[in-house]
Amino acid sequence: MTKPRVPETDSGIQGVDIVAMYDQMQRTLRDKGWMETGDLLKSGITGGHALEIGYGPGYLGLEWLSRCPQGHLTGLDISPDMQALAGRNALEYGCLDRADYRLGRGDKLPFADGSFDAVFTNGSLHEWTHPVETFNEIWRVLKPGGRYFISDLRRDINFLIYAFLWLGTQPAAIRPGLKTSVGAAYTAVELRDMIKNSCLVGGWIKANPFGLSISGVK
Length: 218
What we know:
By secondary structure, the chain is α/β, with parallel strands linked by helices. The chain contains eight helices and seven strands, in the order H-H-E-H-E-H-E-E-H-E-H-H-H-E-E. The chain has helices spanning 16-31, 37-42, 59-67, 80-93, 131-141, 159-168, 175-184, 188-196; strands at residues 49-53, 72-77, 99-103, 116-122, 142-153, 204-207, 211-217. Strands 3-2-1-4-5-7-6 form a seven-stranded mixed β-sheet, with helices on both faces. The model has no long low-confidence stretch (mean pLDDT 95).
């Protein structure tokens, strides 16, 4: 039986030490080829001006930029520490001229209607206080024909898969964060119920052993 959802923080990842550990974890995932870049590209987001919500250290967006030479990225996150870190990582990638990292909330996107060719996010849905409002904001800032891709963990994850993730999460000091993130994540049924009440009602929900994603076209 799936445990009830326990909401996680909506203030993002803050503090120099925690941010450094999270950066190390994400860098390890990147080096092992475990980022969601392939799924992002398969969703049809292969260029143009994209918005990334909850960019964290920035690796997903930077990997996307490295595969899309004509792409440009605007990132939005609520953590000033992550903003500074993502900027340093963009410099390391040589993408600073194509990546613009800003502070803000997904449920109140500070952009005009139809500003982006694509919107994507990974691993932040379970932190959103107002997910339906954020879905609607994603739809609002997309251009007609624009694509979106939202992925995250799933709360009903198989125990063996969870154990694999737990052991693979490095440094070990950040493992408690995995536990709370899984506990705050949604099931496919819950996600389907939420999008029924949003502008993303036509989105395609896909489940895999590790998590869930929703993608679609405006």
